[in-house]
Design goal:
- This protein has 293 residues and is of the alpha/beta class.
- The chain contains ten helices and eight strands.
Protein backbone atom coordinates (compact mmCIF):
# COMPACT_ATOMS: atom_id res chain seq x y z
CA UNK A 1 0.00 0.00 0.00
CA UNK A 2 1.22 3.48 -0.78
CA UNK A 3 0.52 7.14 -1.35
CA UNK A 4 1.27 8.28 -4.90
CA UNK A 5 1.18 11.77 -6.41
CA UNK A 6 0.75 11.85 -10.18
CA UNK A 7 2.16 14.84 -12.05
CA UNK A 8 3.60 15.21 -15.57
CA UNK A 9 7.32 15.90 -15.50
CA UNK A 10 6.91 19.14 -17.44
CA UNK A 11 4.07 20.50 -15.25
CA UNK A 12 6.37 22.41 -12.90
CA UNK A 13 3.86 25.27 -12.73
CA UNK A 14 1.77 22.95 -10.54
CA UNK A 15 4.50 22.95 -7.88
CA UNK A 16 4.60 25.58 -5.13
CA UNK A 17 7.26 26.20 -2.49
CA UNK A 18 6.90 27.51 1.06
CA UNK A 19 8.22 27.22 4.58
CA UNK A 20 6.49 27.78 7.91
CA UNK A 21 7.70 29.03 11.30
CA UNK A 22 4.76 27.40 13.08
CA UNK A 23 5.28 24.03 11.42
CA UNK A 24 9.02 24.19 12.06
CA UNK A 25 8.47 24.92 15.75
CA UNK A 26 6.15 21.93 16.11
CA UNK A 27 8.56 19.67 14.20
CA UNK A 28 11.25 20.71 16.66
CA UNK A 29 8.92 19.64 19.49
CA UNK A 30 8.81 16.21 17.86
CA UNK A 31 12.60 16.16 18.04
CA UNK A 32 12.45 16.91 21.77
CA UNK A 33 10.09 14.01 22.54
CA UNK A 34 11.83 11.56 20.15
CA UNK A 35 15.51 12.56 20.50
CA UNK A 36 16.95 9.10 19.80
CA UNK A 37 15.65 9.30 16.21
CA UNK A 38 17.25 12.70 15.57
CA UNK A 39 21.01 12.64 16.10
CA UNK A 40 21.60 15.66 13.87
CA UNK A 41 19.39 17.79 16.12
CA UNK A 42 20.95 16.74 19.44
CA UNK A 43 22.43 20.23 19.99
CA UNK A 44 18.85 21.52 20.18
CA UNK A 45 17.84 18.65 22.46
CA UNK A 46 20.68 19.46 24.85
CA UNK A 47 19.83 23.15 24.90
CA UNK A 48 16.19 22.41 25.58
CA UNK A 49 17.17 20.84 28.90
CA UNK A 50 17.35 24.38 30.26
CA UNK A 51 13.75 25.16 29.37
CA UNK A 52 11.53 26.03 32.35
CA UNK A 53 10.36 22.87 34.13
CA UNK A 54 6.67 23.76 33.67
CA UNK A 55 7.14 24.20 29.93
CA UNK A 56 8.95 20.87 29.64
CA UNK A 57 6.10 19.15 31.47
CA UNK A 58 3.61 20.68 29.07
CA UNK A 59 5.65 19.61 26.03
CA UNK A 60 5.56 16.03 27.34
CA UNK A 61 1.85 16.21 28.16
CA UNK A 62 0.99 17.39 24.64
CA UNK A 63 3.36 14.94 22.94
CA UNK A 64 0.49 12.97 21.40
CA UNK A 65 0.17 15.88 18.96
CA UNK A 66 3.68 15.54 17.52
CA UNK A 67 5.27 12.26 18.61
CA UNK A 68 4.18 10.28 15.52
CA UNK A 69 2.81 12.85 13.10
CA UNK A 70 1.85 16.49 13.23
CA UNK A 71 -1.60 17.89 12.43
CA UNK A 72 -1.98 18.64 8.73
CA UNK A 73 -3.69 21.92 9.63
CA UNK A 74 -0.21 23.29 10.42
CA UNK A 75 0.84 23.11 6.77
CA UNK A 76 1.47 26.42 4.98
CA UNK A 77 -0.76 27.38 2.08
CA UNK A 78 0.37 27.03 -1.55
CA UNK A 79 -1.58 30.19 -2.43
CA UNK A 80 -0.98 32.64 0.42
CA UNK A 81 2.13 34.71 0.95
CA UNK A 82 4.67 33.46 3.48
CA UNK A 83 3.28 34.33 6.89
CA UNK A 84 4.90 35.25 10.17
CA UNK A 85 4.69 33.04 13.23
CA UNK A 86 2.17 35.44 14.75
CA UNK A 87 -0.07 35.30 11.67
CA UNK A 88 0.11 31.50 11.50
CA UNK A 89 -0.69 31.24 15.21
CA UNK A 90 -3.69 33.55 14.78
CA UNK A 91 -4.93 31.32 11.95
CA UNK A 92 -4.54 28.26 14.19
CA UNK A 93 -6.59 29.96 16.91
CA UNK A 94 -9.39 30.51 14.36
CA UNK A 95 -9.76 26.83 13.37
CA UNK A 96 -13.23 25.43 14.03
CA UNK A 97 -14.02 22.75 16.61
CA UNK A 98 -14.75 19.93 14.15
CA UNK A 99 -11.46 20.40 12.32
CA UNK A 100 -9.53 20.52 15.60
CA UNK A 101 -11.14 17.27 16.77
CA UNK A 102 -10.37 15.47 13.52
CA UNK A 103 -6.79 16.69 13.24
CA UNK A 104 -5.80 16.02 16.85
CA UNK A 105 -7.40 12.57 16.85
CA UNK A 106 -5.58 11.51 13.70
CA UNK A 107 -2.12 10.89 15.21
CA UNK A 108 -3.77 8.40 17.57
CA UNK A 109 -6.45 6.87 15.35
CA UNK A 110 -6.24 6.36 11.59
CA UNK A 111 -9.30 7.90 9.97
CA UNK A 112 -8.02 6.95 6.47
CA UNK A 113 -8.68 10.52 5.39
CA UNK A 114 -12.40 10.48 6.21
CA UNK A 115 -13.80 13.81 7.42
CA UNK A 116 -16.68 12.47 9.55
CA UNK A 117 -16.22 13.39 13.23
CA UNK A 118 -19.02 11.12 14.44
CA UNK A 119 -16.54 8.27 14.91
CA UNK A 120 -15.35 10.14 18.01
CA UNK A 121 -18.68 9.34 19.67
CA UNK A 122 -17.81 5.63 19.79
CA UNK A 123 -16.59 4.25 23.12
CA UNK A 124 -14.08 1.90 21.45
CA UNK A 125 -12.52 4.79 19.52
CA UNK A 126 -12.23 6.89 22.67
CA UNK A 127 -10.63 4.03 24.59
CA UNK A 128 -8.16 3.51 21.75
CA UNK A 129 -7.23 7.21 21.63
CA UNK A 130 -6.77 7.51 25.39
CA UNK A 131 -4.76 4.27 25.46
CA UNK A 132 -2.51 5.47 22.65
CA UNK A 133 -1.91 8.79 24.41
CA UNK A 134 -0.97 6.94 27.60
CA UNK A 135 1.36 4.67 25.64
CA UNK A 136 3.09 7.77 24.27
CA UNK A 137 3.40 9.13 27.84
CA UNK A 138 1.13 12.05 26.97
CA UNK A 139 -1.73 13.41 29.07
CA UNK A 140 -4.98 11.37 28.86
CA UNK A 141 -6.81 14.38 30.30
CA UNK A 142 -5.64 16.56 27.45
CA UNK A 143 -6.46 14.05 24.75
CA UNK A 144 -10.03 13.71 26.06
CA UNK A 145 -10.50 17.34 25.08
CA UNK A 146 -10.53 16.11 21.47
CA UNK A 147 -14.21 15.24 21.92
CA UNK A 148 -15.05 17.04 25.16
CA UNK A 149 -13.75 20.58 24.46
CA UNK A 150 -11.88 20.79 21.13
CA UNK A 151 -11.70 24.60 21.19
CA UNK A 152 -10.05 24.50 24.60
CA UNK A 153 -7.62 21.93 23.20
CA UNK A 154 -6.87 24.25 20.28
CA UNK A 155 -6.24 27.22 22.53
CA UNK A 156 -4.03 25.32 24.97
CA UNK A 157 -1.99 23.86 22.14
CA UNK A 158 -1.57 27.33 20.61
CA UNK A 159 -0.53 28.66 24.02
CA UNK A 160 2.06 25.91 24.40
CA UNK A 161 3.62 26.63 21.02
CA UNK A 162 3.58 30.37 21.71
CA UNK A 163 5.38 29.95 25.04
CA UNK A 164 7.91 27.60 23.47
CA UNK A 165 8.50 30.15 20.70
CA UNK A 166 9.05 32.96 23.18
CA UNK A 167 11.29 30.85 25.41
CA UNK A 168 13.54 29.38 22.75
CA UNK A 169 12.44 28.96 19.17
CA UNK A 170 12.08 32.59 18.07
CA UNK A 171 15.85 33.01 18.16
CA UNK A 172 16.41 29.67 16.43
CA UNK A 173 14.01 30.81 13.70
CA UNK A 174 16.17 33.89 13.06
CA UNK A 175 18.94 31.46 12.13
CA UNK A 176 16.74 29.03 10.21
CA UNK A 177 14.64 31.32 8.04
CA UNK A 178 17.49 32.40 5.71
CA UNK A 179 18.54 28.76 5.34
CA UNK A 180 15.01 27.67 4.44
CA UNK A 181 14.63 30.60 2.03
CA UNK A 182 17.84 29.49 0.33
CA UNK A 183 16.51 25.92 0.22
CA UNK A 184 13.37 27.13 -1.58
CA UNK A 185 15.47 29.05 -4.11
CA UNK A 186 17.77 26.09 -4.63
CA UNK A 187 14.82 23.75 -5.17
CA UNK A 188 13.48 26.09 -7.83
CA UNK A 189 16.86 26.29 -9.57
CA UNK A 190 17.34 22.53 -9.55
CA UNK A 191 13.85 21.80 -10.83
CA UNK A 192 14.37 24.35 -13.62
CA UNK A 193 17.76 22.92 -14.62
CA UNK A 194 17.44 19.18 -13.88
CA UNK A 195 13.69 18.56 -13.87
CA UNK A 196 11.09 17.73 -11.23
CA UNK A 197 11.75 14.01 -10.86
CA UNK A 198 15.55 14.24 -10.51
CA UNK A 199 14.98 16.79 -7.76
CA UNK A 200 12.44 14.59 -5.99
CA UNK A 201 14.83 11.66 -6.16
CA UNK A 202 17.33 13.67 -4.14
CA UNK A 203 14.86 14.79 -1.48
CA UNK A 204 14.64 11.61 0.60
CA UNK A 205 15.37 7.91 0.31
CA UNK A 206 11.87 7.35 1.68
CA UNK A 207 10.30 8.81 -1.45
CA UNK A 208 9.55 6.34 -4.21
CA UNK A 209 10.19 8.26 -7.43
CA UNK A 210 8.81 6.65 -10.59
CA UNK A 211 9.37 9.06 -13.50
CA UNK A 212 8.32 6.48 -16.10
CA UNK A 213 4.84 6.44 -14.54
CA UNK A 214 5.04 10.18 -13.84
CA UNK A 215 4.37 9.63 -10.19
CA UNK A 216 6.10 9.59 -6.82
CA UNK A 217 5.15 8.97 -3.22
CA UNK A 218 5.82 7.01 -0.09
CA UNK A 219 5.09 3.44 0.93
CA UNK A 220 2.76 3.57 3.93
CA UNK A 221 -0.42 1.67 4.93
CA UNK A 222 -2.64 4.35 3.39
CA UNK A 223 -3.50 3.50 -0.24
CA UNK A 224 -4.22 6.70 -2.12
CA UNK A 225 -3.34 8.05 -5.57
CA UNK A 226 -3.97 11.72 -6.23
CA UNK A 227 -3.58 13.88 -9.30
CA UNK A 228 -1.61 17.10 -8.97
CA UNK A 229 -3.57 19.68 -10.98
CA UNK A 230 -3.65 23.42 -11.56
CA UNK A 231 -6.50 23.58 -9.06
CA UNK A 232 -4.74 21.43 -6.45
CA UNK A 233 -1.03 21.99 -6.62
CA UNK A 234 1.84 20.24 -4.90
CA UNK A 235 3.52 22.11 -2.06
CA UNK A 236 7.20 21.43 -1.34
CA UNK A 237 8.24 22.50 2.17
CA UNK A 238 11.89 22.41 3.29
CA UNK A 239 12.54 21.85 6.98
CA UNK A 240 15.57 21.74 9.27
CA UNK A 241 13.82 19.58 11.87
CA UNK A 242 11.97 16.97 9.84
CA UNK A 243 15.08 14.81 9.19
CA UNK A 244 15.29 11.79 9.03
CA UNK A 245 11.61 11.69 8.15
CA UNK A 246 9.67 12.99 5.19
CA UNK A 247 6.07 14.09 5.75
CA UNK A 248 3.47 13.85 3.01
CA UNK A 249 -0.19 14.75 2.87
CA UNK A 250 -2.68 13.64 0.26
CA UNK A 251 -6.00 14.23 2.06
CA UNK A 252 -8.50 17.05 1.75
CA UNK A 253 -8.90 19.80 2.73
CA UNK A 254 -5.18 20.37 3.24
CA UNK A 255 -2.63 21.01 0.50
CA UNK A 256 -0.93 18.14 -1.27
CA UNK A 257 2.46 18.47 0.34
CA UNK A 258 5.90 17.03 0.94
CA UNK A 259 7.90 18.27 3.93
CA UNK A 260 11.51 17.35 3.26
CA UNK A 261 14.87 17.86 4.91
CA UNK A 262 16.56 21.03 3.73
CA UNK A 263 20.33 21.14 3.26
CA UNK A 264 21.41 23.22 6.24
CA UNK A 265 23.81 23.45 9.11
CA UNK A 266 23.14 21.76 12.45
CA UNK A 267 21.33 23.78 15.12
CA UNK A 268 23.40 26.71 16.32
CA UNK A 269 25.07 26.91 19.72
CA UNK A 270 21.82 28.29 20.84
CA UNK A 271 19.69 31.13 22.03
CA UNK A 272 21.58 33.65 24.11
CA UNK A 273 18.89 33.37 26.76
CA UNK A 274 19.66 29.65 27.07
CA UNK A 275 23.40 30.21 27.25
CA UNK A 276 22.85 32.81 29.96
CA UNK A 277 20.25 30.62 31.69
CA UNK A 278 18.06 33.71 31.97
CA UNK A 279 14.73 32.11 31.18
CA UNK A 280 11.63 34.08 31.88
CA UNK A 281 9.04 32.45 34.08
CA UNK A 282 5.99 31.31 32.16
CA UNK A 283 2.82 30.24 33.96
CA UNK A 284 1.47 26.75 34.42
CA UNK A 285 -0.28 25.16 31.48
CA UNK A 286 -1.24 21.84 29.93
CA UNK A 287 0.26 20.16 26.85
CA UNK A 288 -0.21 17.48 24.14
CA UNK A 289 0.49 15.54 20.82
CA UNK A 290 2.42 13.30 18.20
CA UNK A 291 4.61 13.17 14.84
CA UNK A 292 6.26 11.66 11.80
CA UNK A 293 4.69 10.13 8.83
Amino acid sequence: MAIRFRIPAEAVERVSHAYSPLLEAVLSLHVLVEPKHHPLQHPWVRRARTLPAALKRDIAAFSFAYRRQVPDLLAPSPEHELRSFEDELAALRAVDAETVALEFARPLYDTEGRRDPTFLNRDDVRRHIVGAASFFRASPELVRLVWEEPLRLRDEFASLVERYWQAAFAEEWERLEPLLADAVSEAGRRIASDGLYPFLRSVSLQLRVEPEQEQFGIDVPHPHTVEVTDARRLLLVPSAYVWPHVHVNCDEPWPLSVVYSAPSSPPSRGPRSLRASSWACFGRWATRRGSAR
